[in-house]
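Appendix B. One record, verbatim.
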Amino acid sequence: MPTKNTIRRHYLIIRRILRNDYPSKHILLEYMKQYDVEVGERTFQRDLAEIRSNFDIEIIYDEKKNGYFAQTDSTLELDKLLYFIGLAESSDIALSTMRDKNRLLQYLAVSPDPRAKGVEHIGWLLRAIQNQTVVRFAHYNYQSKETKEYTVYPYLLKEFEGMWYLFAFVDKLKSFRTFGLDRISNLIITDDVFQREPVLEETAKRFDKVYGLVYEPDNNPTAPIEEVKLRISSSMLPYFQSLPIHASQVIERDIVTLHLIINPELENRIMSYGEHVEVLSPLSLRESIKDRIQKMLSRYK
């Protein structure tokens, strides 16, 4: 049965080789050291052999480029495998199932879309948050199409619509930022520690009080947590019952009550339900939704 350390080593080796830049043995060993994994020559060679036999991935050394590359029959299967190994590394999944990977992978549907990536960072970041450890990484911005290096104090991980995000304080900018885990690369857990300041801790907690990701404490640090009441149609109510839109959600008959900071993403979510949802309170939110409906209606005259 593979041990947790073995799975971690295999995962790191595969993930680093998949950058397709033909890393040398030295680069691979240094990469693992960044994650507090140190191995000798014999263990490294044994890991390569186990990856070949257990996962049907040929790790081949290219003498011309002085580095390794991975060869497999299917890129999608490799994506699924990497996702699965990441789950095993960052969770308490039964390690014995790794031997049954061929049988299990047929039941795992993983999209090649970049949004499906990033789960491998969860375990490392959770440890960093718990241990108050400074982390470094590169983050790609979809809008600017640029990759920037960040050194941050991690405070909170948040899942939203199937994607994971890190809410962290960037000391250089003296402000919080939200980072999509799917766009994080070269994650390094440093040896440096930071102290959680009470003010920053409170700010991070408030991030969990918003729907979605739009939370700008620098622009509106005193945004109130408000009670929102929605009347839901009978046909839509089961969806709210099975998939709450916020952790604070309470349902009584056909009324859904939320306690959160109102933001544009919440308005967009309410609008997406169309005639199935009516905002009862607060009045400011009701009027805002009413105004948007009237503007939308004017386009159909």
